[in-house]
Each structure stands twice: as C-alpha cells, then as structure tokens.
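re: that chain from earlier
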Amino acid sequence: MPPSTRSRSSASPRTTQAMEQRITRSRSRTLIQSPASPPKRQKTMPMPTATEDLAESSSSSSVLSDDAALSGDSSSDTPPSDRERSRGTRTSPRGLASTAVASPSKHGSPSTRAPRLKARLSASEKEMSEIEAQLEQSDSGVGLEDIHMAQRAIWSRISETHTPSKLVDLEDQSRKLHDFLEKTIRYGESNSILLVGDRGSGKSMTLRKALEAFRDNADSSSKSFMEIHLNGLIHTEDKIALKDIVRQMNLEQQIYDRKIGSFAECLSTVLTALRPQSKSSSIPVVIIIEEFDLFASRNQKQSLLYNLFDIVQNSAGSVAVVGVTCRVDAIEMLEKRVKSRFSHQQIRFYSPIKYEGFVSIMQNCLTLRQEDIHSAEYLDSFNSYVQALFSNTQFTRLLKSVFEFTRNPRLLNLICMTPVLHLSKATPYLSHGDFIESVRAQLADQPKQLMKGLSTLDLCLLVAISKLVYREVTKFNFEMVYDEFKAYIYRNRSQAGASKLLFRKPVALKSFENLQSIELIKPTQSLGQCPKEFRLMALALDPSQIEDAVDELGDSVLKHWVNAG
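^ sequence. v structure.
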C-alpha cells in the first residue's frame, strides 16, 4: 500500500469531522455575505384548484423555513449529507424547520385556506344560479313553457297540420261538401264529386274540416266510416296507388294468403271488399284523390279511375269518391267511358277577393285560444298585441302590398313563420321588424338573387340574349348569342376594358350551359341528336330584370352595352 493511502486511512475520525465543520461554516458565510440572487421566473400555469393551492402553500412554507435557516445561526447539529450536496438542496436545522412549518403564514394555514377556497367557489356557483333565476324571471313575466306552447299552437296552424277554428269566405262550399258527405256516411248513398280551385284556395282544408266534424260529432246512431287517401304526386302509377289502397284497407294478409301477385287479381280483391252483400253490413268508404288531374293525364287507360267510378255507380255499399284538383279542365281529360261514370258534380273554390278576408285568415292563425296555453294573462296580452299589430298603419300597408302581389293565403303562412320562430324569453310577442324582414325575403326577386352569384361572362351572355329579345328573336342558340357578344366586343374594342371580356368559345359554352342549369334559360325543343351549340333556347326572365342586375353588379363596359340600346 502506498504511503499516501496509509496516511489518509490513518487519519482519525475526529480530524475528519473538524474539517467538514470548517467547510460548512465557510459555505454559510459566503451565502450570507453574497447578495441574494433574483428568483427564477416560473412559467404561467392555469388557475390552481383547491388541492393545488394546498401543495403550493406547503411548498412556500418550506422555502421560507430554508431561507430562515440560511440567514440564522451557521452552526448546525447535523451537516448535510453527500447525496443532498450533490442535488444542490439546502437543508435547514431540524428545529427551525419544525417551527417554520408549525407557524401559520399571514394568509392562514393550508388546512384553513382549502375550505375558504371551496366556500368561495360554491358561493360563486350560487350567485350564478341566482342570476339565471333572475333572468328567467325577467321583466316580461312570461314563462318559457307558455312561450313554447304558443309557438307550437301557431306553428300547427300556419303549417296546415291542424285545421283553423273558422273558415273565412268558405261557408257556402263547406255547407255543400258537408251535405255531400252526409249522404254517404249517414244515409249510405254512393256518389262522386270534384273540388276545383286555385292552389291555396282552401279545398283540402275544407274537406279535412268536414271530415273532422263527422268524426267529432258522431253519435251512437251514425256509422263509422273509412278514409282512403291517394295523391297524384306520391302514387305515380296505378300499381303504387292500388298497393296503398290495400294497406289502408288492411288487406295485406288476405292478399298474402291467396298469393295474389298480378294487378288484375289484386284489383278484383279490392273491388270485392268494396262491394258488400248489403248496405246494412257495409262500412261507408270515402276515397280522397289529391291531384286528380295527374291520375287522368298519366295513364291513358285510366283503369284505376274507371273501376272506382264504376263501384260508385253499381255498388250496393256506400262509397264516395272526392277528387281535388287545381285544373278547370280536369273533367275534359277523362276518357269517354270514365266520364260517363262520373257524376259531374263540382264545387268551385276561389281565393279571397276582399282584403278583409285575406287579413282575417292571417289574424285567425296568429290568435291564441284558451286550450293553447295555460297562462290566461299571457293569452290576453298576446292576443291584444296581435290586435294592435293589425291596427298599425305600417303593418297594414305591408299586408296590402302582399295582397296586391298575390292572394294566396299560403304566402301569409310563410311570412308568419319567421316571427313565430323568433319568439323567446326576451321577445315573448310578435315583432313588427320580423314581419318586415320576412316579407322582403318572400317577395324578393328570385331571378335577381340568382344573378348576384353569376360571373362576368354569364352577365355578358345574358345581355347578349336580351339584345336578341329586343329584336324579337325569342328563340336562340349558343352560336347566335356568342356572335352577338363577339360583335359588340369588336365594335367597342377601343373602349378600356372591353377586350378582356372576350373569352374563347368553349369557355363561353360552359357559361351558357350554367345559365341553363340554373333555369335562367330553358330549352324549347327536345334534346334529340341536335348538338348543344345549336339547341334552341328561350329566356325565362324579363329583359328589364337583366338590366337591373347589370346596373347593380356589372362593370362599366356592361353598363355601357345595356344603355347603348
């Protein structure tokens, strides 16, 4: 063993302990004499929770105890170990550390700060709940449930899912239709009738009102009746219509058991069910055919209409066929054999002729009834507000403009949808401004709205088409339009910006097809084998609408072309 090693190992433990105490004193003196180093910046962290606040308070108390230990007496009973010196941690004397943790800080001990924080959070939640309760009990004083009930009641009327309480200017038609149905339902007579009128004139609503009256006012002496509903827009073929008749008459099991697959066999089964042995054992059947003209024009044989009218003429039971159409010439569309079996009874319906009847339809839809909501106070205030709204001069002028535009009551229902949807806690009553916005949206010039999204080339072709129309060229093709467009550009090529509007023919053809796809122009002949450049088209707009759109959206060259005449 070398002598140096022997000398180190031969040193007494007392000498080694003295040397370590000197090193500790020198380090503590340098820490006291040197200025305090600035604390390191900590990264911003989110708002601490109650448990994080507890950990932070305990760590701050330990740091305070360490600082107190360093600034106090340099002598210590137990010096720091080698592991602690390698980590760079500062240990405090045992007595000082215990007193620092035990002494409360100026914010209170962690055991008291956590309940305070929880109490503060619960108090803030309580305040938020109180604020929400105050918002619910706002100055309107109307419950949210009553507002929703009012919305549902009015919406059911303007969407025509429920019949109105009163039919305006339809008393005569309602009485005739009631008498016709009464003969079938109560007295067992078979007959047919046709309801004719414009769309929105009240044909279907009057029929539904009459059927509801028989269902609601049925007594023990009157028979129950069956309804079969057909629609030309849904039942595009006789097979589809017959299949739906089987479903509504609950004959699916009978058809399945007999393994009936053909149209003739299925039709005979339905006719047998509609032809009972005697009137006493029969149930009245009311067959309602919406869009009656489509059944007559779609099928040349008209086999379904023929068999239904034949049942009415020759059946021992009670069957009523009610057709609903908007075409006046619907009877002339029937074949001779079908027409001979029709009773030729008609009830004519007309749109409201007077302004008062037009307005009363809308007022009846917006007026609440007692069964609509629970709050009688809100019912009275809402109805009084509706009456005040209809007596307003500006609102009356607005409705007159709608009446002059169209007399279709369904447009009034569309106008009422936006104000009804905007009913809320803040606005529990119908707003006059919502009606103005809804009228502007419904009466907006739709072609003009379409032209707002057109490109410059699309507008150029439309202007060229309008020039052809002014020269009484009502039918045109792409070649004619492109030649007109190119001729103007060549004549005015010296004008600033005119040459940039001339596009190649394939690009202009794509733009021409775009005008056809959005139906601003429409074909006047079948496509056939004719090339698309030579297919004849017609303008679906008025030339004045094109001029207005160009004045609003077009550039200076297009405006000059429009005003050039």
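The longest strand covers residues 191-197.
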